[in-house]
Amino acid sequence: MDVLETLLRTKELVVERAEIVWQALRRFSDSKAGFANCLMQCGLYPEARKTPS
Hints:
Helix content: 40-55%
Largest sheet: none
Radius of gyration: 12 Å
Number of strands: 0
Strand content: under 5%
Number of helices: 3
Distance between the termini: 36 Å
Structural class: mainly alpha
């Protein structure tokens, strides 16, 4: 988690939709879910939330 925080704070690195990644990181630190699941819950991958019809 510290590594990801450092990457997000690095000015030389641009993270697309960084605000969602920050939300997911906070959620990840407060839960037992995996980081990828937290990204989906925060809306980074909205297509992953869709259920097949």
